[in-house]
Amino acid sequence: MSVNPMPHSETHWSDSSVQWAHDFPNWIYLLREFDTLYRYGSAGGSTLIRSHRKRVREATSRLLNNRTELAPKPPEEKPVCTHLQRAIDIAHRGPMAGMARALANVSTALTWEYGYERLPANLAKKYAYCEIAGPRGPIRTNAIILGFVLFAPKTTYPQHSHRDIEESYISIGGAWSENNLAVHAPGSLILNHPGSEHRITTADQEPCLLAYAWVGPEERLSVIDMKLSKPRRAPRTTG
């Protein structure tokens, strides 16, 4: 399912010539919101999160301060996109309102994808992601991947890991949990180390929109390598 691009020049796509991100302010405003998330958000006293935040903001600063190619793909929706406006509305109520406005301004130009050759059938209507900056994003870079992932209400995203990729999620709109350990509200950040397995669940009544950042070797960022894994069974106990 696809949508028509917005009628003004900020969201058109073309293979005819190179375009530059700074000529399309809405994309730059969105990139600045990512920079703000990682520049001014709290590390909560964690040295690991502080280091990750620094790596992300250094990469976004380079994109903002240098001539960066803009190469949008044709916009595309997935079934879960019927929940996007609700997730943006939720984000407008809290600390992520700036990000919500910037995302809304390019929402009809986004390319939503699955990222798996074989997606579990139960996820087809409940999940999709869009890359904003990266080797395949409209803002082209090989140094980092920035994007969004959208989940429908009452979704369980299976246990998975990312080889050689350090990944963070920041809640934009809606509540969620990782590995059933805590509830994360808008503005909160979760850091997953390379290879660490994690599982995401969302609330029963509301969708969840997360921003994400991937940091890792260029050769890993340039190839989609997301793997789902089966949850490990808890050892049997005897009494």
Provide a brief overview of the structure.
24% of the residues lie in helices and 25% in strands. The chain has 239 residues and is an alpha+beta fold. A six-stranded mixed β-sheet has the order 4-3-5-11-7-9.
Key descriptive features of the protein:
single chain; 239 residues; alpha+beta; Jelly Rolls; 6-stranded mixed β-sheet; 4-stranded antiparallel β-sheet; 5 helices; disordered N terminus
Your description of this structure?
This protein is of the alpha+beta class and 239 residues long. The chain has a single domain (21-228), classed as Jelly Rolls. It is 24% helix and 25% strand. The protein has five helices and twelve strands. Helix 1 packs antiparallel against helix 2, helix 1 (25-40) packs antiparallel against helix 4 and helix 3 runs antiparallel to helix 4 (97-106).
CATH class: Mainly Beta
Helix content: 10-25%
| Mean pLDDT across residues | 86
Structural classification: alpha+beta
Tertiary shape = globular
The biggest sheet amounts to:
6 strands, mixed
Rg from C-alpha positions? 18 Å
Distance between the termini: 54 Å
Q: Which architecture would the CATH scheme give at its second level?
A: Sandwich
Topology, number of strands: 12
Query: Can you say what the CATH homologous superfamily is?
Result: Jelly Rolls
Going across the biggest sheet, name each strand in turn: 4-3-5-11-7-9
The number of distinct structural domains comes to 1
CATH topology, anyone?
Jelly Rolls
By DSSP (H or I, 4+ residues per run), the number of helices equals 5
User: Runs with pLDDT <50, length 5+?
Assistant: 1-15
Q: Percent of residues in beta strands?
A: 15-25%
